[in-house]
Design brief:
Length: about 550
């Protein structure tokens, strides 16, 4: 268990270390040279240095036993420093995940213990040239090597693609097919027959090492099969998806905020048309903050639930990853725009952050795979409840609105009711036979659920009941305003885009149209947009520290 105080101290020492060892100019140079700062990464992972790994290792293996919430906080902080370095450091966490969930006690003792004591760097080897989103298509094979009746070990052959830390790790978890199905194996760096290729020349996260791996008759003892039972690999990977998706969600969030935190001060000094840009509504209101905070609320809620023992929460992890990484990418893009020509140059960093954050919508499951995961899972809930799942959710937010009239719960409820109607129409007209409609449903579900999540966080904050480790960037009034802003966007999106895609796939006839529009609540959705500009003005004042000044006028 990590206390709030320990977590705060760890985050501070990370920040101090980065300030000293990774100044902007060095990051720019390393990015230009496409160079991974291995010494710095080793110091960050070294138990005698910063020892970030210790936070994640269970106490019985020499770590501090941090949970999902701690992981999120550290990942956000790391991403604010540099997403390439964050990827390199957190790859050990990802690489050791199959061990964490599936290994025998002896294997955990050995590998988690070595990470804690020696700062071992791990890599996670799942992806292959022909198996990316579809890991079931993997071709790497692990063949049993027998000693009489006993399995002595395995001979592994295959190729791995795009492996973070591929060229620098000390140990690798490698997914390969046995006769009983895909299984994880631990392979050490210098094992004969095991090679890594040169680092990839990437669009972003150029401070992380990404390399292809080749395994040519690589022999490992039987005790390197994670868990000691063949065929558990995909289950073990699935078991941590909720957790690992939260890590990447936090990367998107941290990088998005890092970009905005450069644009915000810039705009207070940049004078155009006689006044700082920070005083121009057409400028400030394009800095996308509400979506980032909707992503954060979804991360925080999911992390709390994982830590409370609710399981791996893969779908919730997918919602958090989808929202936070897409929002982080848009925020970084908005930051380039906000700096104009300067933003388009290397020196001002936002261009680098934009290139870096782009990966978060690709690795650990692409945004399209997230949409599909979300849609398929919630589709089942829709069917099981005969179409009432989201209507029932909406009712809870209508009740919440009675106690918390500022939290945007009423607007979130409109989104959820409309979502239920869109899904029901899709069911009745069998619209999900079009894959595009299924994925668009995934997007609408993510928006509606995040609107609910942010409203819940705003209500909890108003009651002073938010987790003590939760972000305090915004106070209760500001969080409520953000919730209303995001809920309006989500509601409009679900209502109008839901209608659009139902019409586009022939799901509603001319004679049914008026009734469907009414069922969606389009008129109420449009009326709910009232007050949006006032809320956006308020958030701009918060971002630019003008609230007290405004109140005094
Ligand atoms: C810098 C970097 C670091 C990485 N680190 C690691 C690592 O450490 N370990 C590791 O194992 N992997 C790693 N990866 C791999 C990463 O997880 C994969 O790139 C990702 O899962 C996508 O797989 P793919 O590249 O094969 O794309 P594909 O699966 O071929 O997808 C290509 C496009 O098609 C879409 N698509 C795929 N399937 C469908 C479908 N059924 N329906 C509709 N659209 C679909 C995708 O959304 C995507 O837009 C890394 C990748 C990069 C670039």
């Amino acid at each position: 268990m990590i206390t709030k105080k320990t977590l705060k101290l760890s985050l501070k020492s990370l920040r101090d270390f980065a300030k000293k060892e990774l100044p902007d100019q060095l990051l720019i140079d390393l990015d230009a040279r496409d160079e991974c700062p291995l010494k710095i990464i080793r110091t960050m992972c070294d138990p005698k240095g910063i020892g970030i790994q210790l936070l994640f290792i269970p106490e019985e293996y020499g770590g501090f036993g941090g949970g999902a919430f701690d992981v999120y906080c550290v990942c956000e902080e790391m991403a604010r420093i540099d997403l390439g370095v964050a990827t390199a450091v957190l790859a050990t966490f990802l690489g050791s995940d199959p061990i964490f969930v599936g290994a025998t006690p002896e294997q955990k003792e050995l590998w988690l213990g070595r990470i804690a004591e020696e700062g071992l760097l791990f890599a996670y080897g799942a992806t292959e040239p022909d198996a990316g989103s579809d890991l079931g298509a993997l071709k790497s094979m692990a063949e049993r090597v027998m000693d009489g009746d006993r399995i002595a070990g395995y001979k592994i052959n295959g190729l791995k693609q795009w492996i973070s830390n591929g060229g620098i790790a000390d140990a690798y978890t490698i997914l390969a097919a046995t006769s009983a199905g895909p299984s994880w194996f631990v392979v050490e760096r210098d094992t004969p027959g095991f090679k890594h290729d040169k680092p990839e020349d990437k669009h972003g996260i150029r401070l992380s090492n990404t390399a292809a791996l080749a395994l040519d008759n690589v022999y490992v003892d039987a005790n390197r099969l994670v868990g000691g039972v063949e065929g558990q690999g995909l289950n073990q990977a699935q078991a941590v998806f909720g957790y690992t998706r939260l890590m990447v969600a936090a990367f998107g969030l941290g990088a998005g905020w890092a970009a905005l935190d450069r644009a915000i001060p810039y705009s207070t000094k940049r004078i155009q048309a006689g006044a700082p840009l920070s005083e121009k509504q057409g400028y400030t209101h394009k800095l996308i903050v509400a979506r980032l905070e909707a992503g954060r609320s979804s991360i925080e809620e999911t992390a709390e639930r994982i830590d409370a023992g609710e399981g791996s929460l893969n779908t919730e992890g997918a919602v958090a990853k989808y929202m936070s990484t897409e929002a982080g990418d848009k925020a970084a893009d908005a930051a380039i725009q906000a700096l104009g020509g300067y933003g388009y140059t290397h020196e001002y960093m936002v261009e680098k952050i934009k290139r870096d954050v782009r990966i978060t919508t690709i690795y650990e499951g692409t945004s399209e795979i997230m949409e599909m995961t979300i849609a398929r899972d919630r589709w089942q809930l829709h069917l099981k409840t005969r179409g009432f799942h989201y209507h029932n959710q909406a009712k809870k937010f209508e009740e919440m609105h009675l106690a918390h009239r500022e939290a945007g719960a009423d607007i979130a409820a409109l989104a959820l009711h409309a979502l239920a109607e869109v899904m029901e129409k899709a069911r009745a007209a069998r619209l999900t036979r079009h894959q595009h409609i299924l994925l668009r449903l995934g997007e609408l579900i993510a928006y509606a659920e995040c609107a609910g999540s942010l409203a819940r966080r705003a209500a909890l904050m108003a009651e002073g009941k938010l987790n003590e480790k939760a972000s305090q960037r915004f106070d209760a009034t500001a969080l409520a305003a953000l919730s209303r802003i995001f809920a309006r966007e989500a509601t409009l999106k679900v209502g109008e885009e839901g209608l659009r895609w139902v019409c586009a796939s022939g799901g509603v006839s001319d004679s049914e149209m008026a009734a469907f529009e009414a069922a969606l609540g389009l008129s109420a959705i449009h009326r709910a947009q009232a007050g949006l500009i006032a809320d956006m003005d308020y958030i701009a004042d918060v971002l630019f520290n003008r609230v007290a000044k405004r109140a005094a006028v």
